[in-house]
Structure of Putative acyl-CoA dehydrogenase:
Amino acid sequence: MKPDTSPPSPLNPPSPSSPLIDGPERTALRSAVAALAKRHGSDGGTTDELWAEAGKLGYLGVNLPEEYGGGGGGIAELSIVLEELGAAGCPLLMLVVSPAICGTVIARFGTDEQKRAWLPGLADGSRKMAFGITEPDAGSNSHRITTTARRAPGGGWLLTGRKVFISGVDISDATLIVGRTEDARTGRLKPCLFIVERGTPGFSYRHIPMELAAAEKQFEVVLDDVALPAEALVGDEDAGLLQLFAGLNPERIMTAAFALGMGRHALAKAVEYARVRQVWQEPIGAHQAVAHPLAQAHIELELARLMMAKAAHLYDAGDDAGAGEAANMAKYAAAEAAVKAVDQAVHTLGGNGLTAEYGLAKLITAARVARIAPVSREMILNFVSHQTLGLPKSY
Ligand SMILES: Cc1cc2nc3c(=O)[nH]c(=O)nc-3n(C[C@H](O)[C@H](O)[C@H](O)COP(=O)(O)OP(=O)(O)OC[C@H]3O[C@@H](n4cnc5c(N)ncnc54)[C@H](O)[C@@H]3O)c2cc1C
């Protein structure tokens, strides 16, 4: 068959996925979310309206159990939602945290009471939960976190510590805090998860000004002898690490989706511009020095999406260990692809790449977030070096 050489229409960017890979339901979800995002547009303002509408339509809780108001799907579905919102220029960062990490952890390990109290609200978006693991003195080394829960004399817990860069604390009803409890037998500290509701005495937060054009803000959180009821602990005190990774793998897969959406958004703008911008006889997109890097960016985004789909598939199938490696690799690949796509997109627009009108320059810092958080590029390379390749550790 002769290849179709007719120029693609600017209104018809490359299809983000084939129904043969996504299946009919996910394809329909992708189109429906893309349509909602298109209606909303990328105005850069508050995300409240979009959050509320996406919640009403069932998109925010697609991964949560049906009996608690969710869609009964998995991280594969939720990552499609975030990717499509991002591709339209209106990502919802809190999707990474509220339904993906907190919703998953509560659905998998919470008590019936915790599930009843939180999941319906997280699913329809009427309630939000932030997630706090990063500490100023631990950073990439989560094993060094020192936020500690002691048993209170009258029952319950007393939680003390400090967290940094916690997203969306101001708009969340609670924060899921990663702390540590002491093993009564060995005295060793074990990671544990606590739901700390906003307004609990001793829980305070301070805005950290960031050079990011995003609706969601980051905060330093101080926990000063925060008295929590026994029911604030999520899951089993002795299975903290396993439970934590049940939440961290979705976080990585969702960060990949965040990066992929942003990369696609930037690339689509650049392609549209390169098709029409003419400074010699041909549109600039006819120059291979302009076209090839855009083609490369597209290929790299597509490759990263395949790895994201693999990670989501493994995670949703219950293979936490297998999903760990794939989720790390997907996050790595998607962040690198997005940083490159954004950089090339800005360059393709020349001076316009730096104007507020085209809205691309602000993505330079936004794309870097995926390279740093929730786990940096170097820590993923460390993970793959040691866990996958079996190379010795230097630290
Ligand atoms: C916009 C944004 C939102 C965030 N939201 C949240 C949130 O909601 N909740 C939350 O808990 N956290 C959040 N974070 C924090 C984020 O997860 C951390 O910034 C990240 O884990 C890195 O930690 P750090 O900043 O302390 O860097 P550090 O750990 O100090 O690392 C600094 C640099 O050193 C490198 N490095 C460190 N150790 C090694 C090593 N052994 N080998 C090689 N290189 C190394 C790192 O790769 C990095 O480049 C957010 C961060 C940002 C920027």
Summary: Residues 130-235 form a domain with the Butyryl-CoA Dehydrogenase, subunit A; domain 2 fold (CATH 2.40.110.10). The mean pLDDT is 93.
